[in-house]
Specification:
Strand 7 and strand 8 form a beta hairpin. The chain contains no helices and eleven strands.
Length: 125
Amino acid sequence: QVHLVESGGGSVQAGGSLRLSCAASGYTRSTWLGWFRQAPGKKREGLATVYTGGSGYTFYADSVKGRFTISWDSAKNTLYLQMNSLEPEDTAMYYCAANKELGDDYLDGALYRSWGQGTHVTVSS
């Protein structure tokens, strides 16, 4: 099992940027690591995922494609989410998650077994 701890959340004005970090401990080779978010009263939304194996494959939700970038630093065992051009609609609790295998839907949170505690992002207009 992978233990995950997020950081980097905070408050930013619309149009600004934030970088979230997720420190991972445990076996993280050949693992899918994803970012999710949940706003009050809304369903959890998958944002992006990366495979830590050889391919380094990444996949993004349409809602964040071109604005958010997921990356994995294997030397630091840390997952990142660079978020640019933030909008008030991006306000949410952000979580990182991990699992060894995924099904056809890379951003289905139900397929991820390990979760962090979350870090909150507030974007003001």
